[in-house]
Specification:
With about 450 residues, the chain is mainly alpha-helical. About 70% of the residues lie in helices and about 0% in strands. It has 24 helices and no strands.
Length: about 450
């Protein structure tokens, strides 16, 4: 499983945004649905696509101002539109607009308001309130037990809370109810989480078959397949899928970022850096700036790297200002960069008290390590590995902790395992692991 940087959940807004997607690309449940197709049962009228979200918001605002018999539905659709805008335009302020619109819809129609209830689940996950996401997701399922999207959001919440089996059960219900791109996407991701990349690829290929005539849907599936093939080191196939994604949707940010990752994995750091430097102009996500900074570090350009990291941190602050809770992504980034270390550790401990997922255990281990508590860090690093399957990043962190404790043999074994699992899970970390092991 790839981590381009420590920024994961914040870049993805936490859950599948009625159509999913990520503010920064990473294979996780939040981008497990296509970029622009809308479940009409959930969003009612009109459908909101990534290409016309601003125009759709204006249309809905005019309809709401005029009142009418579908006021609650329009208010709910407006809330979902703002959530879409927050994702595709990296605009955290739109989360506040979404919250107001969804609250208005629930005031207008307090009972059996499926769209607004589903929107509240999405909003909660977008702000890293995964308990809230689960609660609102369950309410949505209670209103409409035959909506597969609501089941998927419940599954995503279980996954974030560390309940993999419950997540997989929800995904199975989802695919039994409606085999389509979102459901097969989630099956693909759960297969990857359990260490079976070949099954993950097969499920994503099935997902691609459900893309229909939507170029955005197909581009999303091709992007995911590109990522999976990078993980399996099949760079030729990865390139084919990423090129296809960008043919379907030119300048599709996640596919551009993945192309940079592929370029770097092939050894062309300068080429990858040029791609990222251009991408952040149009897709200014925290994780993209963090990845750019890592590439600058590999080029030896420390001042440029520091500027990119500072911009990533500034943008994280913007999300926090709009009620996006610090999550593992914040913690890991701060620990990586050795900034806000006391806060990173405090937040990691808070997260651990709330949920026991592998990602949370790893973030706590890494925050403890960054603060110099190496012996304590070892416990949680081992726990993260035990709770996951073949996660190269967790093995790398555990190796660095063992190295800090003077256990060179154990550290080298962990680095070797990480590189065997995924030689390019993180361009910077994999480079450091190879350097420690004396490899090219």
């Amino acid at each position: 499983m790839r981590k381009t940087s420590g920024l994961i959940a914040v870049v993805s807004l936490g859950v599948a945004l009625f159509v999913g997607g990520a503010l920064v690309p990473r294979l996780r449940p939040d981008p497990l649905e296509p970029v622009a197709a809308i479940d009409r049962e959930a969003l009612l009228d009109p459908a909101i696509a990534a290409s016309d979200v601003d125009e759709t918001i204006k249309l809905l605002q005019r309809r709401i101002e005029g009142g009418g018999p579908n006021l609650a539905a329009d208010q709910a659709a407006l809330g979902l539109g703002y959530l879409q805008k927050a994702r595709i335009q990296a605009d955290p302020a739109s989360l506040d607009d979404a919250a107001r619109a969804l609250a208005s819809s629930l005031t207008t129609q307090p009972r059996d308001n499926f769209s607004a209830t589903l929107g509240r689940a999405i909003l909660a996950g977008s702000r890293h309130d995964f308990h809230g996401q689960l609660e609102w997701g369950r309410r949505a399922v209670a209103i409409n037990p035959y909506n597969s999207q609501a089941l998927g959001i419940v599954g995503d919440a279980h996954l974030e809370l560390g309940s993999l089996n419950k997540a997989i059960a929800a995904y199975q219900e989802m695919i039994d109810l409606r085999p389509d791109l979102p459901s097969f996407g989630r099956i693909s991701y759960s297969s990857q989480l359990t260490g079976n990349t070949s099954d993950a690829i097969a499920a994503m290929e099935r997902a691609l078959g459900f893309a229909g005539t939507s170029p955005e849907n197909a581009a999303w599936a091709h992007w995911q397949l590109g990522e999976l093939h990078i993980t399996s080191q099949n760079f030729r196939r990865a390139e084919e899928h990423l090129e296809k994604a960008l043919t379907l949707v030119p300048d599709y940010g996640p596919a551009v970022e993945s192309t940079a990752h592929l370029t770097a994995a092939r050894g062309d750091i300068r080429g990858a850096r040029k791609i990222l430097a251009s991408l952040v102009e149009d897709f200014p996500l925290p994780g993209n700036f963090a990845f750019l900074g890592e590439l600058y570090l590999l080029e030896g350009r420390r001042e440029k790297a520091q500027a990119a990291f500072e911009e990533a941190d500034r943008r994280l602050g913007e999300y926090a200002a709009h009620e996006v809770r610090p999550d593992v992504d914040f913690v890991t980034f701060w620990a990586d960069r050795r900034i806000h270390l006391e806060r990173a550790l405090r937040d990691a401990r808070t997260l651990y008290s709330q949920r026991k997922s592998a990602a949370v255990s790893d973030s706590l281990a890494w925050a403890l390590y960054a603060n110099g508590h190496h012996e304590k860090a070892r416990r949680y690093a081992r726990e993260a590995i035990r709770r996951s399957v073949n996660d190269a990043g967790y093995h790398y962190h555990a190796g660095m902790i063992e190295r800090a404790l003077g256990n060179e043999r154990a550290a080298r074994a962990l680095f070797d395992e990480a590189l065997t699992m995924d030689p390019s899970w993180s361009i910077l970390e994999s480079h450091r692991a190879r350097k420690i092991l004396g490899r090219r």
